[in-house]
Amino acid sequence: MNAEESNSMASIISSLSESFKQVPLAALPAMLDCILASTGISPSALFASLLDSFSKFIKDVSEKDLKLDSSMCNYITSMVGSLCHLLKKFGNNTDGLLSFIWKCFIPLMKMVHAFEREMLNEIAESLFCVISTTQSWGVLEANLVPFFLRSAGLSMGMFQNEESDAFEWGHCSIYHGLSDLENDFDMDKESMLSLSGSFPLPISCHILTLILDAALQSFQAVSSTKSTLANGFCYTEKLFSNLLSDLCNMSERLLSQSLEHRSCTIGFLLPIIFKAFGSHCSLEITVRGKMFILSRNVFFRKIWKLCRSLFCLGHLERRDAYNVLSLYLSFFSSTEGFGNADANVKAEEFDVRAEREFWDEIKRGLVDGEGPVRKQSLHILKTVLQISGGSQCPGVSEKKSPEKHPIPHGMTKREMWADKEAKSLGVWELCNSADSPLNNQQQWEAFILLYEMLEEYGTHLVEAAWHHQLNLLLQFSVSNNNFTSYIFRGFHQKQTDILSEAFSWVTILWQLGFQHDNPQVRCLIMESFLGIEWLKYGNTAKSVSESFVLGPFIEGLNDPVHHKDFGVKGAYNSKTIEGAARFLHQYTSHLNTREGIAFLHSLASVAKHFSFGRAGLMGLAECIASAARGVGGHDSEEKWSEDAFPDEVLVKSSPENFSDSRTAILDVLRFVIESSKQHFNPNYRLQVCEKVLEAAALLVSAIDVPLEILLHFIATLPRAFTDYGGSLRLKTQEWLLGSAMEHCIVNCCDDEDLDAWESEAKRWARALFLIIKGEHQLAPILRFFQNCGINICKQQSHLKWLPVKFLILARSLVAEIQIMQERFTQRGIKIKRRSEISVLDTVDQLCYTEASMINGRIHGLFLFILEGLVSFADMSSSIFWSSMTEETTLPGSVRGKLGGRSQRRLSTSTTTAILQAIISMQAVASISSWCAQFKSNVKLSSVWAFLWKFFWKTVSSPTCDSEAGAEICLAAYEALAPVLRALVSTSSPLSLDLIRENDEFSAPAEEVKCCLDSLALSFLQNINNLLAVGVLARTRRAVLLNQKWICLESLLSIPYSAPGNVLNLEDGSLFFSDSAIRCIFSDLVESLDNAGEGSVLPMLRSVRLALGLIASRKLDTLVSSCNGVDAQMMWRLVSSSWILHVNCNKRRVASIAALLSSVLHHSVFTDESMHLTNNRPGPLKWFVENVIEEGTKSPRTIRLTALHLTGLWLSHPRTIKYYMKELKLLTLYGSVAFDEDFEAELSDNQDASNEVSLLGKSPDPELTEAFINTELFARVSVAVLFYKLADLANLVGTEKENEDCHAALESGKLFLLELLDFVWSDDLSQESCCQKKI
Hints:
Blueprint: H1 3-20, H2 28-39, H3 43-64, H4 70-90, H5 94-110, H6 117-134, H7 137-155, H8 171-177, H9 189-197, H10 201-225, H11 230-255, H12 259-279, E1 282-287, E2 290-295, H13 296-311, H14 315-334, H15 343-348, H16 356-366, H17 371-385, H18 413-425, H19 427-431, H20 440-454, H21 460-477, H22 495-514, H23 519-530, H24 546-557, H25 575-589, H26 593-609, H27 614-632, H28 636-639, H29 647-653, H30 661-676, H31 682-699, H32 707-716, H33 719-722, H34 729-738, H35 754-771, H36 779-790, H37 792-795, H38 802-833, H39 848-876, H40 892-895, H41 908-934, H42 941-955, H43 963-985, H44 989-999, H45 1013-1029, H46 1034-1053, H47 1074-1088, H48 1096-1111, H49 1127-1143, H50 1149-1159, H51 1162-1165, E3 1172-1173, E4 1176-1177, H52 1179-1191, H53 1195-1211, H54 1220-1228, H55 1236-1244, H56 1246-1253, H57 1261-1267, H58 1273-1289, H59 1295-1333
Antiparallel strand pairs: 1-2, 3-4
């Protein structure tokens, strides 16, 4: 082309470019034809020029990343339309088509983000129109299809097509195909090849679906017209078949990948594939010379398999699987069961509705936690059932004119509205029709109606239609032709299968109702379910699925909305719990023994996997007991057959993998009892334990259970219920004795460690006294103890651990007897204080006289073997005084231990000997102490002498500078702690003589004035020296400190337990000197701020004892000129105590009470200088201010503080005037309404009970007991205090009483003025706020 022609062409192209922005697309063909005719330019020349110009435009837009406005979009559309019009004029021009594809179409597809998707479709449609007109499908097949298949493959991480793919799009194949185009289009092969790797997957999939759709339309057009264009028909058929095959393969791969890949499959590929398969059930394709049949039946089966795998994954995968099924069913419905296929093909067609897994997944989706999944499942179900439209009552095709019906008397306004709504839905006419059986379709419509109503939050629709429609479903569910028979079309099924399937769909409605957001709907559905008369429907309760009962139903029982009256007036029951128990009894009564036992195990195991509230746990316990009654009604001989419990249930449900079903049942029942312990109300726990015990007695024979498991179960029951006077003692005994237990009591210990043996022995001792009902039953046990006790030293050489196990058993037996004696005493006090007997104070079958006789026999036994036990303890404890070399080899469990309980840093052999020595000393101490307390005239002088000798040897032993030696000294102090407790509990003149006898070598007799000084000071010096050496590990040092304070508490308790609690001894000497007690007090105060959690109680008790000794004048006042506790001592005490309190657990009742009774000691509270000095707060007032301020964050602290302070103020009215501000704060205080933990800790924790009893005497014990757990306790305590002070002001008596009366009157006036001033100030502040708002 010469220069003139070039200028002319440039002018035409420029004019056309401007025209393309203004001329409509429909007018472009005519305009181009006019230009060609008028100018004489050939179509090819014009096409080439336009394409070059357009290619430059695309390049500029891409490089500059321009955003296209509407005029530029119109320009692109017009340009593409013009180029395609010119291509049609060429006819079959391969070069022109290829140049358009590579220079225009592919670059435009790459910049598709810059314009709308509709524009992409228009561009593609223009291209495919050219290809269809010119029959150039071969060009498309050879170039464009492999290009975009490669792009999609690279997005999936594939670099080469697979063998099953019809198209080859690997690097080598594409590279070879581009060789001929490189020179023609001025593009290198690498840049052309790289384009495919940069296309987004959605664009590649979209273009491929457009190509397949165009090929399908062309193939159908050619086939219908029977065109003679054999070549075109061949290319069209080949392209359509091969591309459909590859897209099917691609869909399968994409569905198994990420969310983006699955979205492309669902949004692009599957719709066109289903459309193609809708007209062609099978196609023949040739892949590398081999012929295959592409069948939609095979493809649908593969898709269904992929959907099943997606259902097993997360929520997103489930939603995609439901989307695939929706597409499939929409195609299936549109083709009416593949109606265009012949009979043979149709018979072999895959129908997903015939798959049971399909219906199961629909049911799972209908109760899914996500709303979109439920909607998808419902849509699929309605599509399958061919149900459309909104909620309409089945059986009512059109609305009738409103008729007036009589309104029953007594209907509430809510029921009247529900009845009106029912009439609008047509429910009234349907349910009042005489004979109107519903067909399958109408039953499904009833199900859909109820389901859609439950998806709404409101209650009006549910109240209107639920009862009517559900009754219809239940009525027709028991028939052979119920609505689920649609699922079993073409299959022979048992009637029980059809019935179970029907109830599996009805349970979907119940589950949705139990989990509904509206509590009123939840109540309505639960009430409806529990009100079903199952016998009316042929007793079909057994058809309800077990998964529903153990899942949604039990979880629904845990909903507090169903138990509004639960716990009111002490009644831990509700109508819902009663109804649930009835249902479970009926449900299990029709299960065979094997199924019933397995069901009960699963039912009780629910407590392991679900957190229950108070009402929920009670409901579970009631259901367990009721179900056990249903199962327990079967033949007892059949109950525990070998196959009564399936092995697979044991493996799945029991983490301990017990080999026996009875063990597994008892284990899960034990867990239910453990769960009740988080609810501390004793009557509530009693009721739960009673139900669980009833189930255990019905299901388990005690003789068939290993003793270890049985003892674990019994130990789980709270002691208050099974000890003497306990409500469950008689039932427990009947269960145990009814099984004629023959367990060997000797083999109750295992070989793991000492703690396990002690726990096992305690459980054994508790079970022993539950079983024994007479003295004669104790004879074998007494013979066993007698034989072992006498020969304990001889057995040492034969069975290494047998003596230790025996001593642990003996200690546990003594401990259990002491607990029972305490229970007897407490029960007697309760009965004396109250005229009536509560639920927990039932009369026990074993009377007190017979129990005393049994204890007497045991007492005689221990006295008989005590001498042998002392000899064994003496022999075993010799290791404490033996010389030990440094331990060089520690066990691996010690060297590699991180955290957990502190372990002895000794070799295994040494640890064994140490533990034996500790246990032997503990056994001698506890047994001798109980024997002395049981009978006061028992002669145990040799035992006491041995124990005091052990004390002196321990505190006088030299300090070791090696870790092994220090560990042995620590073990000696561990053994000393129970020895001192035993010595303190049995203090007598003989004990004091033994103290002098052992101490006479340390000081001349004429200088001994304070007999306990040398004991205490020697003890402190020895143990402090051991601590100062610093060879013990940090955790072991903490253990030693704990033993120090425990022993010190026992030493300080000796004066308080002296005979008659006398001030001086008979010879005029005292217990402690002033200097000794102050030294002890100083050591305590200095250590308080660093005390460990376990040392808090013994340290605070020691402080209280020390202050009491100073104040009671049990001191050598002649030696010291100081009289009592001074302010400096108290300031040190309150400072250290406050640091201790801040760092301690504020929910420990014992430690808080001990702190109050120790610091605010009654002996120092009388000293007014402790409250106010020089118009500044004294130590006690400072402490009270801080405690009350901190108590605003701790309800327990403020209640205990109020209890103690009101008692002190009532005893010392003269101190009240210093605490007006604190009294006002207590009066205004409010906190949580009820604290069950507080009451439970008082009943279950003996330390807490003892410490609370030592607080200040309450002004009114009855009111204290009534209000201690309420937010009103603080203000009630203050009110009672001033009520008592008013009575005190009216007393007339001695001079001291008159002073207290005046102090009471003065404090009353001051407090009244304080309250009036507060009210006046509060009114002024409120008035000021109102004025500011105005």
